[in-house]
Amino acid sequence: MTPVELSRTVLHAVRRAVDEGELAVAVLPERVVVAPPGPGGCGDYATNVALQLARPAGQPAPAVAELLRARLLRTDGISDVVVTGPGFLNISLAGDADGRLVRDILRAGPRYGHTDDLAGQAPQLHAAPEVRALVLMDTVARVLRSQGARPQLHCARPPQDAWVRTLGVPGDLTVGTGTDDPLRPVPAPADPTPLGRDAARWALLHPAPHDRPHIGDSRSEQHLAQRETNPLFRVRYAHARTRALLRNAADLGFTPEPGPVTPHAEALLHLLADHPRVLTATAAHRAPDRLARHLVAVADALAPLLPSVLPLGDEKPSAAHRARLALAEAAGTVLAGGLTLLGIDAPEHL
After folding, report:
1. pTM of the model as a whole
2. For the residues of 309-345, what is the DSSP string, one character each?
């Protein structure tokens, strides 16, 4: 069960409770957010839906949580549900949850986290006629499309040819003033095109829109540096390492096979499970920096796993090696998909 499927399962339980008169809620949430448990939580995923429903239902949040807990425990694929704190539902999935998550990612490929939740919506995006605003708008549009929307792009003036040619800014946007979602980040302090497409887009997107990007100053060259202090390099290097591991494993005669992995991979698994929620939040808040920071976190959590993926010396490939290889491939898949949404290349060799 993927996070998206679990979200729908919880929402279905809420709707059934309302339909059968156990909850009196006039307006149901459109979606339920599930995420890895926070401090004090347990299980594979947690949700605060009971706290959201408590006031409109006129019941204490723990009572709403217990009501939903009873329904979720009767659902295939869920092994346990624990209520913690003021009313959080902590959900444990049945069987090999880690292997199931990895299989779901590998099955979806770079489209892992894509949904049709915004199908039928056509948000009007308007960018100031400035390079950072246009790159931001292009990236927001990419993420919105990944969630099923069909955004319409507007700008008061056509983009410069260099921005279209070098940075991938869409040249077919509507010239004119849009009515919704004005995107006005802090402007780029200098021309980013000398950095090239990948580094320039990262330099413009990685900082939050209200932060000043480091372009044209003494720190500008860091975006091109092939070292660990450059977060773009860490993300792309981590992806390239996963591809190299798959090639090396093939030479050794074994392939990835999802299964249980060592406990130190728990942080990485939680980040991979959180990827669909990050895409949803990025689209909702028009904030590609959330996706960029998430990719850095995935790359950093992946790094400790990489040395243990391949057998050492005369060691024979084991089920643990195959499971770690599958997890590395899944992480690389998430990194590649995320970079693509940012309009940045994910090379197999670096």
Report:
1. 0.79
2. SS--TTPPP-HHHHHHHHHHHHHHHHHHHHHHHTT--
